[in-house]
Amino acid sequence: MHIEHISGETVGEVxxxxxxxxxxxxxxxEAGAFIALLGERYETMEELLEMITWAQLGxxxxxxxxxxxxxxxxxxxxxxxxxxxxxxxxxxxxxxVVSAPSARELMEKMELxxxxxxxxxxxxxxxxxxxxxxxxxxxxxxx
Length: 143
Description:
Belongs to the LOG family. The two termini are about 15 Å apart. Strand 4 (about 65), helix 3 and strand 5 form a beta-alpha-beta unit. By secondary structure, this protein is an alpha/beta fold. The chain has a single domain, classed as Rossmann fold (3-Layer(aba) Sandwich). It is globular. Helices cover about 35% and strands about 15% of the residues. The strands form two sheets. Strands 3-4-5 form a three-stranded parallel β-sheet, sandwiched between helices.
């Protein structure tokens, strides 16, 4: 299914998934980067923080961006800074998140992004294993 913008131009694709775990796994596999827009739901924040965590762990090396329109994410960014000041977040991990007040500036910063933080574990050390009888992504799905 494709989403059409008011202009009628196709701007994306809608994927129906069974739960949040599958949603995040699909995004992580297929996205070239992650951008958090202004969100009114906790899921936006949860997904954002998980992608930041996965970057820190070395699960992915993709850019994580915040579209910080009108300072919407200022308190979150200040929270990260406080975490560094208090020793709960390593200084280099702050570089995982790229933020800007406009889409154009955010895209420019994201294109220049190079991971500079130290990973807790190498990307190769992460393996996907089944959790009980829970099906893995793309397993047992009709073609």
